[in-house]
Amino acid sequence: MTPFHLIPEALSPAECDALIALCQGHEMKDAGLVRQTTAHQIRRAELSWLDDIPEASWVMDRMIRLVAEANRAAFGFDLTDFLESPQVARYGAEREGHFDWHSDIGSGQVAAKRKLTIVVQLSDPADYQGGVLELRPDSNIREVERARGTAVLFPSFVLHRVTPVTEGTRWSLTLWTHGPAFR
Ligand SMILES: O=C(O)CCC(=O)C(=O)O
Ligand SMILES: [Fe+2]
Q: What Pfam family is a match for this entry (predicted)?
């Protein structure tokens, strides 16, 4: 199986800008909250859920087409739904925004059905230092291309992390697709 699949220019720079601006115009939530306790050692970022921003509905439309094509080309998974809102994350240097090693498959009803994770790099690489998205599909760690608008797709069970942002701000878009259990 391909450990991950890259789609260059999944979003244009203007689309990345538009999406960031929409999220800046809405209140973002602290991502460090897990069951009412703060878990900032695991993740320090601010989040927008695009389902809360009607003007951002084009994002899901675009991603559905893109993911269907990429899944056929690279993974061949049985995918049936997008059960969760797309999420935009902001990782700022002011508190060393990061997300430690994790898999996206969780124990919750919906998180347990995640199959493919899609992340789009929304920021210009010149706008931040650190903030590297790393995947660990095997014993090797791979750095994901930073070019703005690049989408990376990987099976949701693959371990990944975002290293601390040390300068500037990194923005990303994340979505998950869902389906029946792997077999
Ligand atoms: O911001 C990223 O690049 C990754 C986000 C992520 O891993 C997640 O939301 O589960
Ligand atoms: Fe993740």
A: 2OG-FeII_Oxy_3
Of all ligands present, the nearest one to the C-alpha of 155 is 2
Q: Compute the distance from residue 119 Cα to the ligand 1 centre, in Å.
A: 7
Model confidence pLDDT, tens digit, residues 70-105: 999 999 999 999 999 999 999 999 999 999 999 999
Q: What is the pTM of this model?
A: 0.95
Give the ipTM of the model, two decimals please.
0.99
User: Strand 133-136 to strand 43-44: parallel, antiparallel, or no bridges (unpaired)?
Assistant: unpaired
DSSP state of 9: T
Query: pLDDT, tens digit, for every residue of 50-72?
Result: 999 999 999 999 999 999 999 99
What residues does 42 pair with on adjacent strands?
A: none
Residue 36 lies in a domain: no
Q: What is the CATH number of the domain that holds 173?
A: 2.60.120.620
Q: Separation of 83 CA from ligand 2 center, angstroms?
A: 16
